[in-house]
Amino acid sequence: MAPKAEARTALDEMASDGSFKRREAAWRNWIETSPTSKFQPEADRYHLYVSMACPWAHRTLMVRALKGLEDVITVTVVHPTWRKTKPDDDADKHTGWVFGNPGGAPFNNTIGLGGPFPAAFEVNKPDPHHEGTFSIRELYEKAGDVDGKYSVPILWDKKLQTIVSNESSDIIRMLNTEFNDFAKNPDLDLYAKHRRPQIDEANEWIYPTINNGVYRCGFATSQGAYDKAIDELTASFDRVDSILQNQRYIAGNEFTEADIRLFVTLVRYDEVYNVYFKTNTRSVSTTPSILNYCREIYQMPGVADTVNMEQIKTHYYTSHPNYNRWSVIPRGNNFVGLLQESHDRDSL
Description:
Elements: E1 46-50, H1 55-67, E2 74-77, E3 83-84, E4 95-96, H2 136-142, E5 154-157, E6 162-165, H3 168-177, H4 196-211, H5 213-218, H6 223-244, H7 257-276, H8 288-298, H9 309-318, H10 335-339
Parallel strand pairs: 1-2
Antiparallel strand pairs: 1-5, 3-4, 5-6
């Protein structure tokens, strides 16, 4: 067995030049119908642990909703505010995702300031499968994790009591294809063979410069690293704008996984990233093609229920005291209200 790595978060994944270098997910098993597959597609066998604040977890909630898998794969939403994951161990400084505790006492941020925050918002529940579990970290430890990054989403196997995957890009493809026998919308194919070259090409530049690009801006610890990230993000934002002025979706005129991967970043852009991650060279609300694109996706059946701006803003603004010492949450411009207005994408 490999030696266990020290507990860490994304904030620890920094290069010597002050740039953010996200590491790949460690758990990448696959669910498939195959005689040799350890993980077979079954109804009510798998469980998603997610945060509604996390864009990577948001991808999985969107695909679950769009495919009609709500009765097939159960979900638990963790608390948006990071807490110490070993609160009784003063030497362990790791902070991360914890479960909601509806009867618990309010708390402050991890340096004792801000808040107080409720021990659970309406959507945050205890772990239904492991009584008394406090944090997501405990699930990783139960599964024998040696990587040390306790992230969401987690696709959990209730039968084998282990992690299938914590890589969102893999999870959404499994949800797209491997559960069609149980899905209410099995004909929806978000990664159709005839569109894969265009989808892959879009993902190839959107991930590093937009999805991860906002984090590269926000977590940069040198001016040079920030300048490089914001230049690439701004150029890609403008590229999205140009594409969406001429076609309905980012990889053509069919809705695909590339749109889901892009949407989860765009929906957080104005309310969080513009302020918190200093991505203020552009905004969605002042870019008509992108705003209307977001409106159309938000208004697709099931998608609005996956967008919880209270959870999103609470997480970002209260979880990292080194970025926001007092955990004050900006009021914002009611971006969700803008998403509820009619869109013009039918013209394309």
